[in-house]
Amino acid sequence: MFIIKNDKVSKNNCKFAAYIEEIALMNYTECVEYILSIPLFGKKSGHQNIKELLWRLDNPQLKLKYIHVAGTNGKGSVCTMLSFIYTEANIKVGLFTSPHLIKINERIKINNLDISDVELTNTFNKVKKVIDEMIKVGFNHPSFFEVLFVIAIQYFAEQKIELIILETGLGGRLDATNIIENPLVSVITQIGLDHTEILGDTLEKIAIEKSGIIKHGCPTVISKQEDIVLTVIKKICKEKNSILEEVMPLNYTILKRTDKSIDFSLNNKYYYYDKISLNTCATYQIMNVATALNTVEALRYEYPINVGTIEKALNKFYWPGRMEFINDWIVLDGAHNESGIKTFIENIKECFAHRRITILFTAMKNKEYDLMVKALSLCSNIDEIVLTRVNDSRCLDTDSLKNSFIKYGFKNIHIEIDIEKAINKHYKVENRLLCCVGSLYLVGEIKKILQEVR
Fold first, then answer.
1. Per-residue pLDDT reduced to its tens digit, 329-349
2. Where do runs of H (alpha helix) occur along 181-321?
3. Candidates 3.40.1190.10, 3.40.630.30, 2.60.40.10, 3.40.1370.10; CATH matching 41-316
4. Fold of 324-453
């Protein structure tokens, strides 16, 4: 902790109160450790805690403007694309996403730059002081996600951010971010089965939860959805007098494609984009681009942006851990549910049909891992499986995973708990690609390993 060394300070000195307060401050390492420990004693009670916390901080959320984004797959990509676009247009943009891959700072950005250690520490200490006051009068400790969200909002307010791109953590209706009452626009990316133990076991139930971010009189933009999901969203938009903007049908032409990039033209009812270049081969990002562009167009009067600026911004777009081509031998993808794995497989077939594939895989206990394995079995050039674990108590055991892979006909299965050894053993094999999927936590640990090697 930070300690002020001042032998002259006494209880009778007016400096004593400041001295005591300063002693209680945490340094960066301590505050990160504290935040990461919150699930051990955090207890949620609807939005009561977070509203109280924000009220005691003088409601910083009321000073800001938001684009609010929910969905199962693609919401992080859409948020980041929007951040790149508005940054390129010289707008001061705040971005709040989750999870982080390597460092907790990644969750909070201004113009695509992570919050610094000093800024995170200072903002945390302000928020922590108020949390302590709340606990003294009987409130529960805010949850892990609530604390990070409030840190972000407090920081963005202090930095006088012009526009915040806000990603939900889980669901929508009961998510901490949903205390935002009047977003400029609500965005819902592709909805699939995930977190079924919390959000519900059908697409309809999950759609109802995600649609909780739709607000009265605020426009809504949605990606292409299953029919049942679309029915739910349309009903809620009608009830809330929200103008609905659908990204469908998707009218695009691929102009050029390599294993590391894609060029395409895109036509919608507002503009014709004759050439958009992305530094990824993932065609699923085209849907995310279309969703981001419809969002920009929904706000074209508040924030007018020309086509050239948008195309330049998307060429700079980078979102780690999503079909991320590390080098000629390793691809990282955070697909962690059935629909995400299916999309990943489609891109593997399109980009790497000529190569044999080794899958390095793990999954969390709360995921539908059996459905993910079934989806992987549909890709014929996957002929080797390496199972591992991440350093997290929620990680599924390798025996359960192995049984699932055997069930779906995989034969060449290895278990290597040490992720670094698994990479080294299956790295740089001729005409073979090592694809690491199943969990963003796996992607994060691999990126840490690769960072240390460099």
1. 899 999 998 989 999 999 888
2. 196-199, 203-210, 227-239, 284-298, 307-316
3. 3.40.1190.10
4. Protein-Tyrosine Phosphatase; Chain A (3.90.190)
